[in-house]
Design a protein that fits this description.
Layout lengths: L1 E9 L2 H30 L7 H10 L15 H22 L21 E5 L6 E2 L5 E3 L3 E6 L11 E5 L5 E8 L2 H7 L6 E6 L3 E5 L4 E3 L3 H17 L6 H35 L2 E5 L3 H4 L5 H7 L1 H14 L3 E5 L25 E3 L6 E3 H13 L35
Helix pairs in contact: 1-3, 2-3, 5-6, 6-9
Length: 407
């Protein structure tokens, strides 16, 4: 499977200027490609082919006075920007005809220099390299300092340089991992666990373990409120407003980084200790429209379950998602009697059939494990393996912005 390895970059002043120039040129080429296709659509003509766009928007454009500055950056960066535009249209049309799974994707839009995320990609043709001193040597940018938080297992074929809203730079490598080697790293176990996710406790396990919710956003609310208030008082377009905006972005990035690190540590621990894991398929979007919206977003359940999913696939574990309408909080795990719905303030209840006293969350976690039907054979192999999608992040990518796509 493919994983994304991300590392923090620390470019100097001249390198920041060169990166800003590369971001701008890539953005202009992308916008020119979108404009060319939109003009063809409005005129009722077929969309121009990729080769034609490359010739007009890059090769010929460099010879004009208005686009001569495109020659100041690597040509590979511009070609990859055209490929991104092609991929965006391909995903849009696939979403329209229903062949693409997931939420509907809209038509490509023009990029802005004010976007919170800027990125460029260098393939092997660009002849980028890692110097003996551990720096990332990028064409027409220079050798950029890298903080190597972990070694690269193999030599990657491409690197994506990203600038996030907080002004931080990252180098992102896509790595093909060896499934056999990954699975051999995990200790063999026959344990299984059910997980009930909540707000009072982030997770309650079927063995009775309760994991407190860190509530990173709630804890940082006062600082965020102060930074946002300072931003609102600055004059639009001023340098002080730009500084205040960065301050707000860095405060939010700190919260997101802490939450992501917590999710990584907990998911890795659960995967390493259990052969089978059961969770509920929660409707996070619906819950985010209630009065608990801020707390739901602060918990980040969807991100945590996605981490469990790709790590389970990577390390040969089993992840089972049960239906969201399963009455796990209403069913007595001792006798199986359904005792009816209960308001959220009821944290402990007594079964009317057998008289057993239940902790609401612990009882739900046991029922989740039971409903998943997890079982392990004598050799330790899962009887009911769950098909789970691979994801892109991994422990050690602390600080890497969420929502990016593989190069």
């Amino acid at each position: 499977m493919q994983l994304r390895y991300a590392y923090r970059l620390y470019p100097d002043t001249s390198q920041r200027t060169a990166l800003a120039r590369a971001f701008g040129c890539a953005r202009v080429v992308f916008n020119d490609a979108v404009r060319a296709r939109e003009e063809a659509r409005e005129a009722g003509q077929p969309f121009p082919a990729a080769g034609e766009l490359s010739r007009k928007l890059i090769t010929e454009a460099k010879r004009t006075a208005g686009r001569s500055w495109l020659g100041e950056v690597s040509a590979v960066v511009l070609q990859q920007s055209l490929r991104d535009a092609e991929a965006a249209y391909k995903n849009f049309f696939a979403s329209l005809n229903g062949s693409r799974k997931g939420p509907r994707v809209g038509a490509p839009r023009f990029k802005s220099r004010k976007d919170s995320r800027q990125s460029i990609r260098f393939t092997a043709n660009a002849r980028w390299s890692i110097t003996p001193g551990g720096r990332l040597n990028l064409p027409k940018i220079g050798a950029v300092k890298v903080k190597w938080s972990r070694p690269l297992p193999v030599t990657p074929s491409s690197v994506t340089v990203i600038k996030d809203a907080a002004g931080r730079f990252f180098a992102s490598f896509v790595i093909d991992t060896d499934p056999a080697a990954d699975q051999s790293r995990m200790p063999q176990t026959d344990r299984t666990v059910g997980i009930d996710l909540g707000l009072t406790h982030f997770a309650v396990l079927s063995d009775g373990t309760k994991i407190d919710s860190p509530r990173f956003l709630r804890r940082a609310e006062r600082k965020l409120k102060k930074a946002q208030r300072e931003l609102s008082r600055k004059q639009k377009g001023s340098k002080n407003r730009a500084k205040a905006r960065l301050k707000v972005a860095r405060a939010h990035a700190k919260v997101a980084d802490a939450r992501r690190e917590f999710h990584h540590q907990l998911s890795t621990s659960l995967i390493s200790e259990n052969q089978g894991i059961a969770v509920e398929d929660l409707s996070v979007k619906a819950l985010a429209r209630t009065r608990l919206a801020k707390s739901v977003h602060d918990a980040g359940w969807a991100s945590f379950i996605n981490m469990l999913a790709y790590k389970a696939q990577r390390y040969g574990r089993t992840l089972v998602k049960i239906g969201r309408f399963e009455p796990t909080s209403q069913t007595c795990h001792a006798c199986g009697a359904v005792d009816g719905p209960k308001p959220l303030n009821v944290r402990e209840w007594t079964c009317s059939a057998c008289g057993a006293v239940h902790d609401r969350d612990h009882n739900a976690a046991i029922n989740i494990e039971t409903a998943a039907g997890l079982a392990v054979s004598a050799c330790g192999a899962p009887v009911r393996p769950g098909a789970v999608p691979a994801q892109r992040e991994e422990t050690g990518s602390h600080g890497f912005p969420t929502g990016t796509r593989a190069a």
